[in-house]
């Protein structure tokens, strides 16, 4: 038998996408796949636009990129809507499945019912935005973490062996379950250290007024981009 390379990043994307779709929304990866693909393209186009010179009103011009981003935005809004509406019908019919979306919708429906005239509760648009956030950040961050963890463990084989021994001690030859997670101290430590060394996200903030940051004086409406992996390292080393 021959051997071949496997792109683990792609495998982890499929894995995390399926887990998020099932656990958070009670659907499957096929239903969420298009949302993941569109959001990935949306993120790539956004980063491309940030790297270019940004003239005022440029985003309103009917360029190819702008039209594509508007189309993606409409699609990413409509796809979760169908999942949400289907889940709402199940809830009203008495189907109480324990996934994140069902719990969220039940809580929101109860809030609306109790406070009918006060405008309490979230609108459909608000719920859609929450779903989009879970889809995008959940898959992207978790995929990056798992991929980087595999790379780091390959660089430090002794920790790979320690993690494997711990898993065998906790679960034996059985498939690990939720209760086993508390016993995986070394695995948890490895994941936390990878997140410290190689954070999957950056910190982006915008000043609302003139701000003093260290020895810098920043005017209002300035966007700050802080790569967290630099913050987590000793600048003297």
Automatic annotation (TrEMBL):
**Where along the sequence do coiled-coil regions lie?**
none
What does the similarity note say? Answer: Belongs to the cytochrome P450 family.
Which coenzymes or cofactors are required?
Answer: heme
Q: Which InterPro entries match?
A: Cyt_P450 (IPR001128), Cyt_P450_sf (IPR036396), Cytochrome_P450_Monooxygen (IPR050665)
Location in or out of the cell: Membrane
Keyword Transmembrane helix in annotation: yes
**UniProt keyword terms in alphabetical order:** Heme, Iron, Membrane, Metal-binding, Monooxygenase, Oxidoreductase, Transmembrane, Transmembrane helix
Q: Which domain of life is it from?
A: Eukaryota
Q: Record's Gene Ontology CC terms? A: membrane
Q: What is this protein called?
A: Cytochrome P450
GO terms of molecular function: heme binding; iron ion binding; monooxygenase activity; oxidoreductase activity, acting on paired donors, with incorporation or reduction of molecular oxygen
